[in-house]
Amino acid sequence: MRARCLRRGDNSLRVRIMFKTSNVFGNGAVEQLNTLWQIADMTA
């Protein structure tokens, strides 16, 4: 029963780490799109 409690904490830590990494990749994609938009604006 005690091992099950420890496993739950480990899973929540994994979820938090996965959320942070996906958030970083999401922000990077938005910044890249913003940069491409600015380049397209300058050439127009």
The DSSP helix count reads 1
Helix content: over 70%
Quote the distance from N terminus to C terminus: 65 Å
Q: Bin the strand percentage.
A: under 5%
Order of helices and strands: H
Descriptive notes:
It contains 1 helix and no strands. The protein has one domain (11-43). Helix content is 95%, strand content 0%. It has one helix at 2-43. The longest helix is centred in the middle third of the chain and has 42 residues, at 2-43. Residues 1-7 have low confidence and may be disordered. It starts with a helix and ends with a helix. It has 44 residues and is mainly alpha-helical.
Summarize it.
This protein is mostly helical and 44 residues long. It has 1 helix and no strands.
Protein topology:
Elements: H1 2-43
What structural keywords apply?
95% helix, 44 residues, disordered N terminus, single chain, rod-shaped, 1 helix
